[in-house]
Design a protein that fits this description.
The protein is α+β, with helices and mostly antiparallel strands and about 90 residues long. The chain has a single domain, classed as Orthogonal Bundle (Arc Repressor Mutant, subunit A), CATH 1.10.10. It contains 4 helices and 2 strands. Strands 1-2 form a two-stranded antiparallel ribbon. Helix 1 crosses helix 4. It is globular, with a radius of gyration of 14 Å. The chain starts with 5 loop residues before the first helix and ends with a helix. This is ArnR1-like winged helix-turn-helix domain-containing protein. It holds the Pfam family HTH_45.
């Protein structure tokens, strides 16, 4: 099994949030991201710091949701994947 690269992990986390109606609780996101808790925390903090995701509270429950920058990352990453596929790289 191939080890995921940093940019792929970021993409995977953002896509998970997006597929969950742009609202995902921390624990399910941790489980589905397939990372250790320490790795997960590191990525989440970086994504918040770089304004890819934000923390939202709904009925006193914490959720992560994408910012405009997070959506842009997903779209641009998909373009890169398409280029890689088109050129069989």
């Amino acid at each position: 099994m191939k080890k995921r690269e940093r940019l792929e992990i970021i993409y995977d986390i953002l896509v998970l949030i997006n597929k969950n109606h742009n609202q995902m609780k921390p624990t399910p996101l941790l489980r589905k991201s397939n990372l250790s808790s320490s790795q997960f925390e590191k990525y989440i903090l970086e994504l918040i710091e770089k304004d890819f995701i934000e923390i939202c509270a709904v009925d006193s429950k914490k959720y992560y949701s994408l910012t405009k920058k997070g959506f842009e990352y997903i779209n641009k990453y998909r373009i890169i994947l398409k280029i890689i596929e088109d050129f069989d790289l």
